[in-house]
């Protein structure tokens, strides 16, 4: 099933299925996948570690997760939500980096009885919006997914604090430190050299790390975060374009407009008008 439905970078696909890929076949995953076992049982291997998934169990996978179903019961059914890079970036914007680090090492989560009831209601709401909404479908689904992962962050917070740094290699830690630095400094610094100097490594080595662990170039990761910062300012303020450009340290507003359109396909005015129904004086 998961290998049958290709997901574009801007797409969110969701549904329920009792059809599983043939056992032993690697899954071809999008940028982010959320799988919830609805009934039955399956044994799934993720990054060479086995997990037994029963009713209510959750798997959170990324495109580079090495994932295959080893076996599944005849009554196995699951909810799937497959998310492309663009909406996944929108969802991740307000999430703590500790969550990503934890889920990379531990993609399997078992909710308690109350959480399972709430999760069932969340799933029904998600599928209802997915089928019935058109204009604001993607925004609503992103909001639901962000709420889900924010709750997961809250729930797993004690584990974040207990996890020893030695669980991660030096290369992994450098990569996560770079991700943290982007969140703190992308408004002032868009050059890869700044982050490499801060980490005391070369830009080439930083590129090797991000390609290996995040499947993206340092420049691509920085620019993606800058686009999210622009979107956030368009959504949450009435700043004119020049003020947004000044806030994000662009040399001029026309360059920022070209930068935003190159990454999103929208002008700033069109983005604000389409998604938030208000005009901006540019």
Q: Determine the N-to-C terminus distance.
A: 46 Å
Strand content bin: 15-25%
Structural class: alpha+beta
The number of distinct β-strands equals 8
> Which strands sit side by side, in order, in the main sheet?
1-7-2-5-8
How many helix segments? 11
Q: Regions with pLDDT < 50 over 5+ consecutive residues?
A: 278-282
Helix-strand topology string:
EEEEEEEHHEHHHHHHHHH
Q: Kindly report the average pLDDT value.
A: 87
Task: Report Rg.
Answer: 20 Å
What overall form do the CA principal axes indicate?
globular
Main sheet record: 5 strands, antiparallel
Helix content: 40-55%
Task: Write a brief structural summary.
The chain is of the alpha+beta class and 282 residues long. It has helices spanning 85-92, 97-105, 113-132, 137-162, 170-185, 192-199, 203-213, 218-236, 241-247, 253-264, 268-276; strands at 12-17, 32-39, 42-46, 49-53, 58-62, 67-72, 77-83, 108-109. Mean pLDDT is 87; it is low at 278-282.
